[in-house]
Amino acid sequence: MHRLKLLLSMAVLLSPGLILLGPAQDLLKIDASKQSAPPARGRGPFPGSTSPGHSASLPIRLELQISNGPLQPDGTVLADFVITNLGTETIAVPSSLDGNGPSSDILTLWLTSDAVNDAYAKDTSTGRTFKIEIVPTSAELYGRSNDPRSFFLVAPNQSLKVHASSRVQLQPGTHTATAHAELLHIVRDSSGSSELVGTADSEAVTVTLSPANSK
């Protein structure tokens, strides 16, 4: 929570003309549906919790919205990740789709579902196939401490909708899906390490997917 307050203070100081949007304003939106996926992280991100909620340091409600209907031609689905500020103070949420440069904060969004097709790879030394455990992400939002334009200021009770691709192939049928969020702060020192600010998980939603439309 202290980290979020600090980001907000820096954003206001660096941009005196910045207007804080209240809950009466239009829904904030980010279209990340065509964002290229970054290199996969070695161990994740982790699948997240199946129980809805958030960590104390990230006071948000996360919701997943997926429409019933056909899959995309590549087997993926478009989804909306809705982030609502549950706290009593405005928070700064990373909003840039550009990961080039010295990001100070990264918000990663992804989903888990029983509809996800298992992915396999082959061990070149043995010829055996094995299941890949890495969970693909749906969107990465970047914030830079020296650029207030790379953050959205989300007021209490206000929501931010991130439109994204699942980036992972899904199976047709009726399935459940859960959204997950992870906010990291990048430590700018020789180690290049990161600190976990907080996580959030949505309630599971049920969606009925049909095969992609043939052209």
Kindly report how far apart the N and C termini lie.
49 Å
Indicate the radius of gyration in whole angstroms. 18 Å
Shape: globular
- What is the oligomer described by this structure? single chain
Give the fraction of residues assigned to helices: under 10%
Q: Extract low-pLDDT stretches.
A: 8-24
Mean pLDDT over the residues: 85
According to DSSP, the number of beta strands is 15
Number of H- or I-type helical stretches: 1
* Most strands sheet: 7 strands, mixed
Structural class per helix/strand content? mainly beta
Work out the count of structural domains: 1
Strand content: 35-45%
Q: Which series of helices and strands comes N to C?
A: HEEEEEEEEEEEEEEE
Detailed description of the structure:
There is one protein chain. By secondary structure, the protein is mainly β. The chain has one domain. The chain contains 1 helix and 15 strands. The strands form 4 sheets. Strands 2, 4, 7, 10, 13, 14 and 15 form a 7-stranded mixed β-sheet that branches. β8 and β9 form a beta hairpin. It starts with a helix and ends in a 5-residue tail after the last strand. About 8% of the residues have low confidence.
